[in-house]
């Protein structure tokens, strides 16, 4: 064990000292700027780094392990940047789960205002510091999440009664329960098989995901319920970042700003486009009005007391969301 730690430490030192010839970025999905908001972010980020003398290399999803392995590699400096699950951050600081409270934000612009007013990045990075990781950005992968199903079209919570939904975690299980449905935690790589075999009947995500991952042969319904903003956490190695020159750190900061702007501009154009993309693939789309979304929103309030977030944290997020609405 001591030898392993020594080797990891030595590798970290070597990575930080080689002049940062290459910034490795672990992707979260297919590299498609037309269908993936997170890749739009990566593309803009990498272009700005390259223009400032920092070469990048994209690592396909799954090529460097799962979420836990990726976090460990970022923490030790073996991987510079990753598009990670928000849950990876939450394992260190559950506070970040506030961005996944149902209906907490009206849209991405509202979320950004709340993040700024609450100084969320500084707060989270203070907690992440002991792990030698940093949160650079929260990146929406598309418009707000809806209900994706294989058999049952959903317009009201009552339509969920007989469905078993794929959940990311206990919080989503609580959400499905509040809607009168059931949930079971299923790793993403097992979702296609689960949908096709009937182990699960659907999941929550942004409309472009079934298209991006080629699921439209068995995903047949999408309900535009606007539940949460599906997003990725851009994590960076603090050892890598601290080893950069002042000029390079400035370039990284500028790259984050440019990538955020590109991502937000892309997402703003996708609300209707993403629904049309589903329809072109033969998926039926239920467009809910604000009034039709209200029953889902009201029932979802029960999840604010699920225990995933402390009362103090729930109050923080609801207060900052109200103040920026």
Characteristic key phrases:
D-Maltodextrin-Binding Protein, domain 2, 6-stranded mixed beta sheet, 325 residues, alpha/beta, 2 domains, 11 strands
Describe the structure.
- With 325 residues, the protein is an alpha/beta fold.
- The protein has helices spanning 2-17, 37-51, 67-76, 86-90, 108-117, 120-128, 170-178, 191-197, 209-212, 238-242, 246-268, 270-280, 290-300, 311-323; strands at residues 22-26, 55-59, 81-85, 133-140, 146-149, 164-167, 182-185, 202-205, 221-224, 231-237, 284-287.
- It has 2 domains: 2-95 and 106-140 and 232-270, 3-Layer(aba) Sandwich (D-Maltodextrin-Binding Protein, domain 2); 146-228 and 271-323, Bacterial extracellular solute-binding protein, family 7 (D-Maltodextrin-Binding Protein, domain 2), CATH 3.40.190.
- Helix content is 46%, strand content 17%.
- α7 links the parallel β6 (164-167) and β7 (182-185).
- The longest helix has 23 residues, at 246-268.
- The N and C termini lie far apart (51 Å).
